[in-house]
């Protein structure tokens, strides 16, 4: 059953109330199948969470980075952190909330989802909340914790500047990467602030942004050639090299020929 935005907000308020008061719960879940590209309305949670799309891709923004999640990745979100997100088409999104008593130390970021973790996420969402003092629930929660803590961190995402004007500039570039957006600021000012706010030169940031745009295209069904063109790479070889440098693998792993 689909929900409109107001229905999702009401659900999220009820969910937050439960998260605050259910001391006997170790792991809660939230499942929603999306039928098109649209925002995902998560509230800021006092519990850390693992967000995963069983099918389809997500774009998620943390305090300082923008991520694209194809189906072999999840994102770990620390407690109390806002994370605006949107699906990039049809997607089956599964979110697990972990009680603070489980004391994860993992920072916000992408993690690799191996087959066992994938099945644990799916089973947890089917079984319902995992309760303390229930042997099966405790066993699943313990295994989930182990798999999440041992999952490989993935070097992905792109730094997002914090100043409003530069954030708007980067937003335009992420939509139209074939040329630099116009700006009231000089290129020298742009370069200086980009380095100060992201730790990257303007050229480095644009190259990483293009690789992220290509990953987004691959995640929604584009071929490797189509993704490279959409992201503004001049040659296929340049695209493959840049993609591998940022994501540690070739774009062929995510797209068609």
Blueprint of the fold:
Blueprint: H1 5-21, E1 25-34, E2 39-40, E3 49-55, E4 58-61, E5 65-69, E6 73-77, E7 85-87, E8 91-98, E9 109-112, H2 115-127, E10 130-131, H3 135-150, E11 158-159, H4 164-175, H5 187-198, H6 202-219, H7 224-230, H8 236-247
Antiparallel strand pairs: 1-8, 1-10, 2-7, 3-6, 3-8, 4-5, 4-7, 5-11, 6-9
Helix pairs in contact: 2-3, 6-7, 6-8
Fold and architecture overview:
Helix content is 42%, strand content 20%. It has helices at residues 5-21, 115-127, 135-150, 164-175, 187-198, 202-219, 224-230, 236-247, and strands at residues 25-34, 39-40, 49-55, 58-61, 65-69, 73-77, 85-87, 91-98, 109-112, 130-131, 158-159. It is an alpha+beta fold. The model is unreliable at 1-11 and 15-20 (pLDDT under 50). The chain has 2 domains: 5-150, Jelly Rolls; 161-253, Arc Repressor Mutant, subunit A, CATH 1.10.10. The strands form 2 sheets. Strands 9-6-3-8-1-10 form a 6-stranded antiparallel β-sheet. The protein has a 5-stranded antiparallel β-sheet with strand order 2-7-4-5-11. The radius of gyration is 19 Å and the shape is globular.
């Amino acid at each position: 059953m689909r929900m409109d935005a107001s229905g999702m907000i009401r659900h999220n308020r009820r969910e937050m109330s439960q998260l605050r008061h259910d001391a006997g719960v170790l792991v809660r879940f939230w499942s929603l199948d999306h039928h098109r590209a649209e925002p995902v309305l998560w509230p800021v949670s006092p519990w850390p969470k693992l967000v995963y799309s069983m099918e389809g891709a997500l774009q998620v923004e943390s305090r300082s980075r923008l991520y694209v999640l194809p189906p072999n990745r999840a994102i770990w979100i620390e407690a109390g952190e806002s994370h605006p997100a949107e699906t990039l088409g049809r997607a089956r999104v599964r979110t697990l909330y972990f009680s603070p008593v489980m004391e994860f130390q993992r920072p916000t970021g992408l993690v690799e989802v191996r087959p066992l973790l994938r099945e644990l996420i799916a089973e947890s969402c089917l079984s319902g909340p995992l309760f303390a003092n229930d042997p099966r629930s405790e066993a699943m929660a313990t295994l989930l914790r182990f798999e999440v803590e041992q999952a490989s961190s993935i070097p992905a995402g792109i730094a997002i500047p914090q100043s409003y004007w530069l954030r708007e500039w980067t937003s335009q570039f992420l939509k139209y990467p074939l040329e630099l957006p116009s700006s009231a600021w000089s290129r020298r000012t742009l370069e200086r602030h980009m380095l100060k706010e992201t730790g990257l030169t303007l050229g480095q940031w644009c190259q990483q942004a293009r690789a992220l745009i290509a990953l987004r295209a691959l995640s929604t069904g584009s071929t490797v050639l189509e993704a490279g063109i959409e992201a503004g790479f001049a040659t296929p070889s340049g695209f493959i090299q840049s993609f591998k440098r940022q994501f540690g693998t070739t774009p062929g792993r995510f797209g068609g020929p």
